[in-house]
Each structure stands twice: as structure tokens, then as C-alpha cells.
Automatic annotation (TrEMBL):
It is a multi-pass membrane protein. Residues 370-379, 395-415 have a biased composition (Low complexity). It comes from Lactuca saligna. Its EC number is 2.3.1.225. Residues 154-278 form the Palmitoyltransferase DHHC domain. Residues 351-362 have a biased composition (Gly residues). This is S-acyltransferase. One of its GO terms (cellular component) is Golgi apparatus. The chain crosses the membrane at residues 50-69, 81-102, 198-221, 241-262. Its main location: membrane.
């Protein structure tokens, strides 16, 4: 790993051994992402699947240009046959660019906290004896109000924060992602708030490309049929490349075309794939539905929010946490509660990890995490709720409450 040292100051010029080391944020990243060009592009851990996707696009188009479009160049007046090849080449480049824009950008990752939020409740279990300090616990779930409806947000043990509404933890990339839709293995990236638009444009454009190739293969076969006065089947036999492309594009349309139709439905009802499979919102109880026009406007016309992560920023390399001996046991010198203790007090009961989900909380205890390069001490739930409320059309007042161990409630109000 390349280490970048800051410029020496008069105070540190004579003390090289204690000079802090600085790294780029992407070099201290705790997720499973893969970075290229010095942190300018961020991909998922299955980035190699992009090459398979590009192969499945480029090879059929190359066969089409060599064996179909080239034969049709002189079959149309005014040299219009040349446009058949020009259009398919340009459209192929457009589809590949959309694929890279979907795969190589931050999908909406929420930065991790340096430590868990301040606990709000105490453990009142009967095992706590007189004179002993009750253990502090974090509530697993908070309730927030979104457009007059109660929405539950979960605590993420890995990222050590309460997720904003519509956020989920991807078990493949190991990140909490805003408006998490799913992790797509074909693009090797999570699909979230910041790249969903490009993902939909990619699958819909790939559908049109398949229809284009499929249609002109039939045009070429029909021209052979008329020129040689044979049946359509004999004409197809004379162009085996067209037969292969017709079968291939027919099968591909069922896949990418089905995705296009499905996501058109999701956009019209303002749902994500994860929400559709998990919650199955009806029209009456979806707190995010703004009507068909408002839902499409949110995806295609609203400005894409800036990334919450500056992957190329310099951050100080954090030293390992010191330990001290207390009663024969090694414990962190930090007085705050570690995620392992939180896990022991109450395992998470969140979402199961998978292609379409991320854990609501990991059932495996995690060591104390570093800040991922963030300089701030913690991620503020209230401020983040307020900013997200203004960004995606929540009500002006977003209130939250969490249940403590005694069944009471504690209100958190964000204006």
C-alpha cells in the first residue's frame, strides 16, 4: 500500500519517528469494494463480471456487423444501408457507457461511524447486583414518521449507525446503501440511490439493442427469400449467423426486457426491488409514493445527490487501540461500549444477507471499526434524517422513537 506523508512542519521536522502517516480514504476502506485510478472509480467485489457483460454485448454486435449489416449496406437507396451499421455501433458504445456508469460510481454508501452512538437505555436485568453499574444498550430498532406513516429503521452493527429510511446493508459489498435496490451481479455493484437511474437506462437500452439486431436479422432473411425466391426457412439456412443472433436476442429480450418492465412498474409505484420482495407495498400504505408522474420525476429528473464519501481525500492513519489489564482480562481503554458487547447483550434480528438484502445487523460479532477516513466522530441520525427528508420528499417533520428494554419509548424529533 502506498503511503503518503504530509509536508514536514517545523514542529515535526526533527521528530520523523512520530510523524503521522497519511493515506487516501480508499486505501483505508473497510468494505469489500475495489477501486481503480486512485479511487476515482469504485466497483463491487465481483467487478470481473463486467467483462462477461461486455462480452455478451460486443460479440453478438460484432457478428451482426460482419455477417448481416455489411450485407445490407448496398440494399437500400441513397446509401441508407450504412446507417444500419453506424447506428448499431454507436448504440453499443452507449450501452457500454451506461454499464460503466452504473458499476463504477458510488451507489449511495453511508459512511461508517468511528464508534457506536451514545446508548440511550440501561440493562435492568435481574443479574445486575447492588452496587453494580447497569450495562448500557442500544435499541435495535427506531421508529420514524415518513409522510404520516410509521417506518422502522434498524441499527447496523457493522457500520455502527441507525440506517436512514430505505437504506439497507449489502452483505456482498459490506456497505449500508441509500435506497438500496439490490446487488446486481451483472454489473458487479450495488444498485442504490446514486446509480439506479443509470441501471434502468442500461437494461432498457440493452433491450432496444436486442430488438434492433433481432429485427434486422429478419430483414436480411426476408431479402434473401425475395431475391432467390425461396421459403423463409431456406433463406434462414443460407444465413446461419442470423439464426444464431435471432435465437440469442430472443432469449436476451426475455431477460433484459423483463427487467425493464419490472423496474418500470417499481418506478411507477416508487418501490425498490428489496421493498417489493420484503414489504410488498400496496398503493394505500406506501409512504414514498408520489403518483406516477412524481415517481418518474424523482428517478429521472431530480438531481443526483453528491457522494457522502471523498475517496481521494487524505486521512490520518489511525493507530491500533491500546489495551489495559483489568481483573485479568484485556479490555479497550476506550470507555465506550464496543460492538461485541452490544452483540452479546442482544443479537441483531435484521435482514438476511444475500443478493437482494443486507443484514439488518450481523449475527457475527465485529471488532471495533475505524472511521473509513471520516474526520467526524459519529454519524448523526437526526441531521441525516432531516437532510434525507428534504431530498426525497418526506414530510417537513420527521419524528422518531425507540423502544427501551422496559417497553417504554423515547422520542427523537427532527425538524
Amino acid at each position: 500500500m502506498h503511503v503518503v506523508h504530509p509536508p514536514k512542519t517545523p514542529d515535526s521536522a526533527g521528530d520523523d519517528d512520530q510523524a503521522p502517516e497519511f493515506l487516501r480514504t480508499y486505501q483505508t476502506w473497510k468494505g469489500s469494494n475495489i477501486f481503480f485510478l486512485g479511487g476515482r472509480f469504485i466497483f463491487g467485489p465481483d467487478v470481473r463480471s463486467i467483462f462477461l457483460s461486455i462480452f455478451l454485448i460486443v460479440v453478438p454486435v460484432s457478428v451482426f456487423c460482419a455477417f448481416v449489416a455489411r450485407k445490407l449496406i448496398n440494399d437500400f437507396p441513397h446509401h441508407l444501408g450504412v446507417l444500419i451499421m453506424v447506428v448499431v455501433i454507436l448504440f453499443t458504445f452507449y450501452v457500454i457507457i451506461l454499464l460503466l456508469m452504473t458499476s463504477g460510481r458510488d451507489p449511495g454508501i453511508i459512511p461508517r461511524n468511528t464508534h457506536p452512538p451514545q446508548p440511550e437505555t440501561t440493562d435492568q436485568s435481574p443479574e445486575v447486583g447492588p452496587g453494580q453499574t447497569p450495562q448500557l444498550r442500544l435499541p435495535r430498532i427506531k421508529e420514524v414518521t415518513v409522510n404520516g406513516m410509521i417506518v422502522k429503521v434498524k441499527y447496523c452493527d457493522t457500520c455502527m449507525l441507525y440506517r436512514p429510511p430505505r437504506c439497507s446493508h449489502c452483505s456482498i459489498c459490506d456497505n449500508c446503501v441509500e435506497r438500496f435496490d439490490h446487488h446486481c451481479p451483472w454489473v458487479g455493484q450495488c444498485i442504490g440511490r446514486r446509480n439506479y437511474r443509470f441501471f434502468f437506462m442500461f437494461v432498457s437500452s440493452a433491450t432496444l439493442l436486442c430488438i434492433y439486431v433481432f429485427g434486422f436479422c429478419w430483414v436480411y432473411a426476408i431479402k434473401i427469400m425475395h431475391s432467390e425466391n425461396v421459403s423463409i426457412w431456406r433463406a434462414l439456412i443460407k444465413t446461419p449467423a442470423s439464426i444464431v443472433l435471432i435465437i440469442y436476442t430472443f432469449l436476451a429480450v426475455w431477460f433484459v426486457g423483463g427487467l425493464t418492465i419490472f423496474h418500470s412498474y417499481l418506478i411507477s409505484t416508487n418501490q425498490s426491488t428489496y421493498e417489493n420482495f420484503r414489504y410488498r407495498y400496496d398503493r394505500s400504505d406506501n409512504p414514498y409514493n408520489k403518483g406516477i408522474f412524481g415517481n418518474f420525476k424523482e428517478v429521472f429528473w431530480d438531481a443526483i445527490p453528491a457522494s457522502k464519501n471523498n475517496f481521494r481525500a487524505f486521512v490520518k492513519k489511525e493507530p491500533e487501540l491500546p489495551t489495559r489489564v483489568t481483573g485479568g482480562n484485556y479490555v479497550n481503554s476506550d470507555v465506550e461500549k464496543s460492538p461485541i458487547d452490544i452483540w452479546k447483550n442482544g443479537p441483531a434480528t435484521g435482514d438476511s444477507g444475500g443478493t437482494y438484502g443486507g443484514g439488518g445487523g450481523d449475527l457475527q460479532p465485529h471488532p471495533r471499526q475505524s472511521s473509513w477516513g471520516r474526520r467526524s466522530g459519529s454519524w448523526d441520525l437526526q441531521n441525516e434524517m432531516g437532510s434525507i427528508a428534504s431530498g426525497i420528499g418526506y414530510s417537513d417533520r420527521v419524528s422518531g422513537r425507540s423502544s427501551d428494554s422496559l417497553g417504554g419509548s423515547r422520542d427523537v424529533v427532527v425538524k
